[in-house]
Amino acid sequence: MKPIRLIFGFLTVGAWTLVSRVLGFARDILIASRLGDGPVAEAFLVAFALPNMFRRFFAEGAFNTAFVPMFSRKLERNDGAEEFARDAFSGLAGVLIVLTLLAQAIMPWLVLAMAAGFADDGRLELATAFSRVCFPYILLISLAALLSGVLNATGRFAAAAAAPVALNVVLIGAMLAAPSFGLSTGWALTWAVPIGGIVQLALVWRAAAKAGFRLVPRRPRLTPDLKRLAVIALPAALAGGSIQINLLVGRQVASFFDGAIVWLSLADRLYQLPLGVVAIAIGVVLLPDLSRKLQAEDEAGSQNAFNRAAEFALLLTVPAAAALVVIPVPLVSVLYERGAFDAEATAATALACAIYGLGLPAFVLQKVLQPLFFARSDTQSPFRYALWVMGVNTVVAVGLAPVIGFSAAAIAASLSGWTMVWLLWRGSRNMGPAAQIDARLRQRVPRILLSTAVMSGVLWFTSQALQPALSDPGWRVLALAGLVTAGLVSYGLCALAVRALTLSDLRMAVRRG
């Protein structure tokens, strides 16, 4: 059985996720330029969010949370892992086919559940039409997520991490090709979503088949293992449901402010860059690694994996969060302000971006702490915590919206993120040595914070000096590149100087890769 190389896994998943996020920026820049923050853009974003919401609920949020630890343990014991994966694949496909057919019948109500503000204007009809085309994506991407879990559990991360790149390539290609086929940008994007899902599923299915897991759907059957999987997955599904309710609350708040769905979505894209690169890498690699180490009763190895994941997360995420807070306007204006996207939209998006930045470390630390529970098949505790977080999010978002407007949704998201971290941390204190902080992490956290403070000062002063260039259409891209480079260099040099990062760490990562 192929061993999981933790640092190499982080780097592999992180690198492919970075490529996907960069292409996602290109996609969103095209959308902002061609559709601005108008009704077509909002209708598409809601339509695209629907299958993605259910995907996180069924596949990544619940099913894989239960499936990956069980599959990893079966691999460790050589106990019918392939048969279990085939049964899970068939069962998930059956459930999602029924869900897709049901959704088609009640689509207008699903759209209103996402954005009640659409009820009194033409956005509802357009969003409903877009959603009926986009929704089958849930079947394709959820099966791809299960296959990705199979690959990740066997220590093969590249194909699963590369799959999202394919979706962005298809979406960008559709927008560029739309005029040649006489299609509007909105409809081109809409049809590209299920096509991109087919490409993603084909990519990971082929990789799984090459790894020895040729999963072909068959008539679903309820085996004892699937019954256990369902029992474990149900609390995770409920927890995933509460998380999706948090997102729904934010989107509902935004739907009552013209353009706010676009502003929040574009701000989300900016903070999703570091969140995706770091958090997805950690979540994908850490869960199967911890599951296998705990099965082998390797407490020391489990503790090291947990602490190095936390260190990796903070080293990359804290400076990224600071940058989103210190220079949101240059980031948003250079990336998005063109065509139909004006200065007013830039200001609103930058505000949301800065607020999300305050919550970014929390969103990543959740991915470090959750595997401590999931690797032990404990999905009930995260579910209880998610209910508390749902209450916090709803009270803050709905309560503040009449006072401060759409930004209440972003504030609620960041505050909820830190609430979940605190609850997960408190709940992990009785898990023994595997969940304890080691001396190296205690030493490095203050050094990371110091390096981030130095970088923040450099970013602020440099942004002031480059303000004329950042406002000049001919120079702004180069000026932003210089600003980001100044931040990276100052943080890297300071981190090396105070030993938040050492050259031996880098050499060890290369050797392990």
Question: Can you give a write-up of this model?
Answer:
- The protein has 513 residues and is an all-alpha fold.
- It folds into 2 domains: 6-213 and 222-437, no CATH class; 443-513, no CATH class.
- It is built from 19 helices and no strands.
- α1 (6-35) packs antiparallel against α10 and α2 runs antiparallel to α3.
- The longest helix is centred in the first third of the chain and has 39 residues, at 39-77.
- Residues 509-513 have low confidence and may be disordered.
Write the SSE topology.
Layout (H helix, E strand, L loop, with lengths): L5 H30 L3 H39 L3 H25 L1 H8 L8 H12 L2 H17 L4 H20 L7 H26 L13 H32 L4 H36 L3 H28 L1 H9 L6 H32 L5 H25 L2 H21 L11 H27 L1 H4 L5 H22 L5 H10 L1
Helix pairs in contact: 1-7, 1-10, 2-3, 2-5, 2-6, 2-8, 2-9, 2-10, 3-6, 4-5, 5-8, 6-8, 7-8, 9-14, 9-15, 10-11, 10-13, 11-13, 11-16, 12-13, 13-15, 14-15, 16-18
Proportion in helices: over 70%
Order of helices and strands: HHHHHHHHHHHHHHHHHHH
Give the total of domains: 2
Return the structural class. mainly alpha
Instruction: Classify the beta-strand content into a percent band.
Output: under 5%
Largest sheet: none
Give the overall form: globular
Pick out its properties:
2 domains, 0% strand, mainly alpha, single chain, disordered C terminus, globular, 513 residues
